[in-house]
Amino acid sequence: MWKRSDNIGVCRSIMPSFCSLLIGVTFILHASGIPWTEEKLQHSAATLTNDEISAALSHTDLGQMWERDLKPLLVVRYPSSAGSQAVQEHINTTLSSLEAGWEVTMDRFESDTPYGRLPFTNLIATLNPAAKRRLVLACHYDSKYYPPQWHGKEFLGATDSAVPCAMLLELARALDEELKAQKSSNNNLTLQLIFFDGEEALFQWTSTDSLYGSRHLAEKMEATPHPEGATDTNQLHGIDLFVLLDLIGAPTPLFGNKFQDTKPWLTRLQNIEKRLHSMNQLVEHPNSVQYFWPGVPAGHVFDDHIPFLNRGVRILHLIPASFPSVWHRFEDDEENLDRPTIGNLSKILLIFVLEYLNARPTVPTNPQNAP
Ligand SMILES: *[C@@H]1O[C@H](CO)[C@@H](O)[C@H](O)[C@H]1NC(C)=O
Ligand SMILES: *[C@@H]1O[C@H](CO)[C@@H](O)[C@H](O)[C@H]1NC(C)=O
Ligand SMILES: CC(=O)N[C@H]1CO[C@H](CO)[C@@H](O)[C@@H]1O
Ligand SMILES: [Zn+2]
After folding, report:
1. Residues with C-beta atoms within 5 A of ion ligand 4
2. N or C: which end of the chain has fewer CB within 10 A?
3. Tell me: the pLDDT tens digits for 321-356?
4. What is the homologous superfamily of the domain 38-357 according to CATH?
5. What is the DSSP string of 248-302?
6. How many CB atoms lie within 10 A of CB 143?
7. Would you list the DSSP string of 185-218?
8. What value does the mean pLDDT take over residues 152-160?
9. What is the pTM of this model?
């Protein structure tokens, strides 16, 4: 598209009536279409019918998620550990084996830490790399490092953040069919999953001893032209919304509002919670709203969204207003997880993603209504 200044330059040398026509045409072009980087501000999500919701949720299985996605993550997995390597392979293998065809890349780098220079690896899975716009779901897969003087005790970080990462893996598997169909029908908008390494401070939280993976990736994405070959847009412009999940898995989480510009999306999560409640899809869920509170302001927390927020990315930070009581304690393990909360939050997230991507599941036809 022309820039306004080009027209004015041309107009100096040609007839005035043609000039006003040219400027008029340019104005119409600008007014009729918005730059792709602003499409996210006007994005409208689908609202699934009850039948579509039931069809989509019929693919979820908390028992399977527990065994296949979560248990392999519940190992000591601080940066550079053998457990970290195993978890990277687990994430890659899980996503690479799906029908939808995810592109999984590893962002490997080294950073100075209080324990010397260490290797880190972020994993980025993109459903359709050709799509300009991405809904991003993110978690950190590293566990907090505890030095050996703790007499062999192991910190497994079940809520911090094995469960959020397992939720992303389960979502990709449960929605495999729907995501495959969405990928072939919509080339403009896709889903990206980011698994950060090095969120935790290795020794003590400072601006340099924390957020190793997200600091590195935000900088790298800002320096990477997007779409390929672009001169004035980068991968961060491609992020519609950056949804960060953290500290999930303890009972009774409350998610308040942290960012005015993304409040409508928190409100949508609350609406989905209400809809699933009315469909009896949620267990141990006595009130129509338990989790999502867009009207309740919540304080900011330093987390992997910060390097993205500082670069203008729109954030939805799904971290409970009160941290789990087991936070950064050895009790943050499988035994202290609350299964109904995890199952029900997974369902809400899954519907949110489908609706955001305008992906409608196929509803099985009722044989009684067949001709
Ligand atoms: C991820 O897994 C796929 C399939 O198993 C494999 O081909 C690929 O090399 C793996 N990627 C990395 C970076 O390890
Ligand atoms: C994708 O974007 C193009 C150009 O903006 C538009 O013509 C097309 O309808 C969009 N496709 C979908 C599925 O939204
Ligand atoms: C624990 C869990 O997965 N949550 C529940 C959410 O709601 C459905 C339907 O009521 C239950 O079957 C799940 O067990
Ligand atoms: Zn932590």
Report:
1. 160
2. C
3. 999 999 999 999 999 999 999 999 999 999 999 999
4. Zn peptidases (3.40.630.10)
5. --SSS--EEE--GGGHHHHHHHHHHHHHHHHTT--SS--SS-SSEEEEEE-----
6. 28
7. H-SSEEEEEEEES--S-SSS--SSSS-HHHHHHH
8. 93
9. 0.89
